[in-house]
Amino acid sequence: MRVADYIAHALHQHGVAYIYEVIGGMITRLVDAVYQQGKIQLISMHHEQAAAFAADATGRITGIPGVAMATSGPGAINLLTGIGSCYFDSVPSIFITGQVNRNEQKGARPIRQLGFQETDIVALAAPITKAAWQIIDPNQVPQKLEEAFHLATSGRCGPVLLDIPMDVQGEEINAPMPLKQKAEELLALSGELIKDLTLHLSKAKKPLILVGGGIHSADAVQLLRQFVNITQIPVVSSLLAIDTLSYSHPLHVGFLGTYGNRWANLALGRADLILVLGSRLDIRQTGSDVAAFKAGRNIYHVDIEKNEINSRVSECIPIISHLRPFLIALLSVVSQEKWDSHKNWISEIQELRRQWPDTREIQNIPGINPNVFMHELSRSSKLASVFVVDVGNHQMWAAQSLELNENQRLITSGGMGAMGFALPAAVGATHSTGRPVVMITGDGGMQLNIQELETIGYHKLPIKMVVLNNKSLGMVRQFQQSYFSGRYPATFWGYSTPDFSMVARAYRIESLTISDKKAIPEALEKTWMNPREPFLLQVILDVNANAYPKISFGKPITEMEPFIKSLDMEGTKA
After folding, report:
1. How many helices and strands (H and E) does the chain possess?
2. Quick one: CA dihedral 123, 128, 129, 130, positive or negative?
3. Quick one: average pLDDT of 211-238?
4. Average of pLDDT values for 323-332?
């Protein structure tokens, strides 16, 4: 069969149900092959970056690599932000780009370009993929495609890029489907190390689990829940693991880090042992005062990538392991022990939570309190399968205050922190779950991929879009307020927004705008009046609504704005 037909067949065999694409000349053979095969649905997006973000969401939710395709040159380059998001957040994904015919490539010639739109996307993508290959020999396709799926889903998951010239796509090959590669052999765990950890956990008076996005990459959420229920150890979460325990779970502490719940940071400051599961201890988790973060406690750090351990926070006890076999081994030991209920420790954390409620962190702001709104939004959104959140202050309010149940996911762009993620990712999320999705963004993020309203309107996708519009780029405006004497060029001065409610109507989507807190209940009722239909709710916020609490940079993680001012500008210390 032709290479293009083989690729369509192989993608289906690997469980791919959707391909997100923007058509271009160099992928017409691939698109036509998928269309004629009829087993994979083509979702035509309106920007390649959006296609990449939709594939990203699919990979996060299903564990099957999300797939996006783009043509050569500008199409392939536009995928890069989404590829980077998958790389930094460990998302299994496959990106397929078309390339000019082999005889149109410059090769070793000392020129910039020979074929029209010829671009070396492999070199550009190499630093942010697990592998990037251009396939010159058609007979390489079966093995490289199999390798791509194996790489994307093994070890620390991530993206793989295949660049396939147009003429290669049309070549005939006679190759059976290759045998699936053996699953990666997981590192054997030391029984002594597991016993040592169990002993220290049992002796600790104030133990705490810090869980990160690796728990999802490893498909180990249920194992963690079993472990927590047995040991009664409270859990704090990084941004990518907010949904690990339900909001109502008695051992769910909250969101940790730079904009974390104040009580969660205070609890971490008081912990005498921390078990880190699949989370980088970067500056957003620890603050810049690393010495204060590690002082007075043992830190066990479990990660599949050894270089992530002791890279910033030294003297952690390393456990290099995939989280599934680690938790299985740990469960086999802890299930035989009798565990303290940690009643006093849990009560202490609950008292901190009562003292520092998230809904009172923002003071003297007229109109709608965003933290209060997040609580009300989640209570009214029980039908939502996923909350897809963009990047900015609204991302922090969502992480601080959404009340997720045990069957709901929260996905966002963590390591890349890419504004414009949420709208196209919501497209991928609703296709992956077949259920309604809540999308939360700000006015800045909304404008970066606003064209995907057409995708949502055309397919009538059940996405409930919430745009928090403070008519500014609020996170950077807050930064300017702290460090630039309240000068706001490009965030408030000279920046503008449209009326998103009117824009939605242009895309045949029902919409509503509110600015009064009294209007919230009725607005949310209208949002969910037709659960299977798209709806956009624009929420007008005061421009001065900041994301609090926030770590006071240069000080320990327990000391947070607005009550304590920073010593350093953010990012100035590693």
Report:
1. 24, 20
2. positive
3. 96
4. 94
Q: Using pLDDT thresholds of 50, 70 and 90, give the confidence band for residue 174.
A: confident
Taking the model in full, what pTM does it have?
A: 0.95
Residues 382 and 512 in one domain: yes
Total structural domains in the chain? 3
- 125 and 231 fall within a common domain: no
pLDDT tens, residue by residue, 422-431: 999 999 999 9
Across 440-460, average pLDDT: 98
Confidence of residue 187 (pLDDT cuts 50, 70, 90): low
Instruction: Check if the beta carbon of residue 68 is closer than 8 Å to that of residue 20.
Output: yes
Burial (CB < 10 A; 0-12, 13-18, 19+), residue 505, is middle
Helix (H, G, I), strand (E, B) or coil at 15: coil
- Using a 10 angstrom Cβ sphere, with 0-12 exposed, 13-18 middle and 19 or more buried, the burial of residue 470 is buried
- Per-residue pLDDT reduced to its tens digit, 478-497: 999 989 999 999 999 999 99
Q: How many angstroms separate the Cα of 327 from the Cα of each of 194, 222, 316?
A: 10, 10, 19
- What are the E-state strand segments in 414-517? 437-442, 463-469, 510-514
Q: Radius of gyration (Cα) for the chain, nearest Å?
A: 24
Phi and psi based region of residue 460 (left: phi greater than 0; alpha: psi -120 to 50; beta: remaining): left
Say yes or no: 285 and 429 in one domain. no
Residue 209's CATH number: 3.40.50.1220
- List the domain range (segments joined by +) for residue 495: 360-548
Judge whether 56 and 384 are in contact, CB under 8 Å. no
Mark whether 22 and 116 lie in a shared domain. yes
Q: Are residues 311 and 399 in the same domain?
A: no
In this structure, what CATH number is given to the domain that contains residue 515?
3.40.50.970
| Summary mean pLDDT of the chain | 94
Contacts of 387 (CB under 8 A, 6+ apart): 378, 381, 398, 402, 404, 408, 409, 410, 411, 437, 438, 439, 440
